[in-house]
Amino acid sequence: MSKLQHQLKIAAILSVLISGVFTTFQSALALDSAGEGRRAWLKYNCYGCHGMRAGGGMGPRLAGESEDVLEAVLKGEDGGMRSYKNIVNTTEINNLMAYLRTIKDPNQPPAKSEPVFMHWWEANPSK
Amino acid sequence: MLENQKFKFITRLWSFRSAMTASFVLVFSIIFPGYSLAQVESAASGNEWTTALGTTQGTRYSSLAQINSGNVGTLYEERVIKTSTAGGHEGQPLVVNIYGNMRMFVVTPWPNKLIALDTAGKTLWTYTPDTSEYARGVACCDVVNRGAAYADGKVIYSRLDGVVVAVNASTGKLVWQTRVADPKTGETLTGAPIVAGNKVIIGNSGGEMGIRGWVQGLDLTTGKSVWKDFNTGPDADVKINAANNFYAKDKGTNLGSTTWGPTTIWKQGGATTWAWFTYDPDLNLIFHGSANPGVWNPDMRPGDNKWSASIFARDPNTGVTKWITQLVPHDGWDYDTMSESIVVPASVPSGKGKALMHFSKNGYAYTLDAWTGQIIKADPFAHVTWANGVDLATGEPKTIPEKAAHEGVVTSNICPSPLGGKEFSPASYSPATGLFYVPGINICSSLQPLKTLFLAGTPFMGADIGFSTDIVDGVTKSFGELIAWNPNGSKAWSIKENTPLFGGVLSTAGNVVFYGTLERTFKAVDATNGKVLATLPLECGVMSNPITYVGYDGKQRVAVYTGVGWLAGGFVGGPCPAGGDEDHQGGSGAVHIFRLP
After folding, report:
1. What is the interface pTM, i.e. ipTM, of the complex?
2. Are residues A38 and A26 in the same domain?
3. Do A10 and A25 reside in the same domain of the chain?
4. Distance between B147 CA and the closest CA of chain A, angstroms
5. Measured between CA atoms, how close is A88 to chain B, in angstroms?
6. Residues A81 and A91 in one domain
7. Of A3, B88, B128, B385, which sits most exposed with the smallest number of CB within 10 A?
8. How many beta carbons lie within 10 A of that of residue B205, not counting itself?
9. Which pTM value belongs to this model?
10. B294: Cβ–Cβ under 8 A, 6 or more apart, which residues?
11. Residues B513-562: pLDDT tens digits?
12. By residue range, what is the domain housing residue A114?
């Protein structure tokens, strides 16, 4: 009985671990490039400076931007942005650019192609 | 020669008047229900304006009365002086008698130039520091500066990039500079210093960037840091014996680190002191508040989050904290407690005769015993939906659970909004009328806290914010409102404004109250009844604080900045004046000087 309980406990732990790995794996692939870009936008606090839909704020407007973002993310900006070189990878930067390209006008309602979810920490954001 | 003699006469007159008005006081006292009248003195500025809030007690009240409610209708704009600097012009000029010569000192927004003017508007010199451009990008809410303080022949102010400077008021030469903050971490300096004895008191800004709030005392002569207190963390860091605090909720050991849940998030806990200090020489205490706790997502920091959203009393010489009273435990609505605490004469339970009046972002007007931190009164001066009052026995707000913000959940109709029932713009207290004049804001919000990673030097926000109109009983309130507040806890009168009031208020012995609006007007109103006596057009809006002084000709002047940056500009179609760079900054701000014909 005790052995069975022990086996069940191990099975439960493995289940949780596998589930966690799967969730992580699924998270990386859960959304398309623009969606994962939106996730990165929120996860890395980009919205804090550039606005929830990249319309600008304490940092410049980035909606529709692309190549300049790559350099800024990697090198930082003299005007007050740190380098994210050791924080984000190439895929995430490409995703960010894909996301920014979907934003036509932050002052207008978003197009269907523009991801607008907020719950970036969920594999498939519910909101 | 004749002109020279005339000038000498006038400067002597000026010197005499300065000496006279420096000791000018009014006998007045506030009576609170249940407490007896005490006759004590109330502070007023005179010919000069030597500290950000006019007096160290923060009254923004002047004893000058040449301009009064009977003649202010003829006020006209004498002079406009461009600052050649973009961005929101908060703060106010200083006017100081320097060896018989009247000088006006203007601190600009970034890059924080210091401009010295004579009272004819001529630029005498400009001190141009090498202020880091990096600081611009980490300043959450525009690259503002809230002004300087004058003492011992020096003009002292903070640079956005974390350096405090003292400049010789006569020559414009740097006397000392002290780096106290590093913008690479997200820290900036936007607040106005105050001089208390031989100490310069300053605090840091950047609570939205995952930094930790502090206050420091620098030596006035050398600029060296004499003491540094944090606003969060263990008692040794805060320099507090919390057993001395008035309320049981604020007593205990190391509450500044143990009320943040199991993590060390208090090290990124914000609670900065980014606006104002007041100082009472009689009590030998400085008073200041602390900002909202970081991160905005309250579920990431379970507990009271002391000592965020609190009022502090500290010894200016040693930094030892006499008391702290936390106004909003576990703040989830961005209710900074950074508004000025005006020191006013009053009969208070301690018998020390001084009260603090604090119009908080959270919408309550607090009266505290300045000696103990006891809350004597707390009444809503704005529409409040997050609490049903303040329990004076415990010092706790009666929070409404439905308005508590939680991760991933949208909570709506939170009033006041993160702009506060009153923002950074300072109120005024007139001992002549016994009223406080409060630049009010009527806006509500919805908040959705978000899970957030701490990445040093980036915003540590964790919230989506939406703003909404403030509706009471089916009636939409005006965005702005100048409120004349009676210390008994009621409005004496108010003036509706179409835009939120981001500028401060000045009251005078001439029974006049002055303030500016984002709608490009400067107003003078009757201090007793709120009747608008003058409305003067400006080229740009106001988010600064008017001052008054006496000019070289012995005539009273009133001065105010114009210049609206990107944040406040959102209410009026963008920054102004237009013509700035593409990074949402407007063109040059200006000093406007008014006088009678």
Report:
1. 0.85
2. no
3. yes
4. 21
5. 12
6. yes
7. A3
8. 30
9. 0.91
10. B207, B208, B209, B210, B211, B268, B269, B270, B271, B460
11. 999 999 999 999 999 999 999 999 999 999 999 999 999 899 999 999 99
12. 32-127
